[in-house]
Amino acid sequence: MQLIKIIETEKGQVVSAKELYDNLGLSTKHYAKWYNKNLLSNDFAIENEDYVELPLSGRSRDFAITIDFAKRISMMARTEKGESIRKYFIECESIAKDLQEINPRVPTTFREALLLAAEQQEIIEKQTLQIEVMKPKEVFYDQVTGSENCFDMADVAKVCDLGIGRNLLFQFLRENNILRENNTPYQQFIDNGYFRVIESKYNKPDGSVNISLKTVVYQKGIDFIIKKYNKLNL
Fold first, then answer.
1. Is the pLDDT of residue 73 over 80?
2. How far is the CA of 137 from the CAs of 78, 92, 131, 144, 148, in angstroms?
3. How many other C-beta atoms lie within 10 A of the C-beta of residue 139?
């Protein structure tokens, strides 16, 4: 099922900013404010590389956005629909890449066109099967983290858009007594619903068992981090 129309161009795949906005499930209804924040006033958005404005064909401005940038915007929306769209873009990119690797040629005869269509259909069927196989793994991940809207610290650094990366964000949280030296949160911040610690076990080559702790952040925690950082740095 096509969630959002993807257009093939000489420079790659793009989508309409207006169509993306309409499908993200955002609570705000101010499209102009949305594209101004995410495109025109976004320090990480580069015009003519991440997006390009389209000729005006109605009352609203529209932009062609690259798939890579659309994935980032979808993740930053922090909505269930946004995450579904991000995964959809990833699946479409994977299918397009497989088709290009196997069939970079353009058919010149009717027979070649039929063969190409058959090969493409086979790839699509394999991709569809792979997506179905991956669904139980996604459900398992949701159960482990406790929420499909739970992010690791690398994603949080991107979503918060504070101008710092994963390592500096960890450092900031440690310096402000939110995380311990091993990058796990103090209990009060877990109780507040900001963080969760995932425990995983794996076997070392010598046969011993090692326990790994990973801190993940809920949406409530992302809002807390943004307010805390801005309060101390603005």
1. yes
2. 21, 19, 10, 10, 12
3. 11
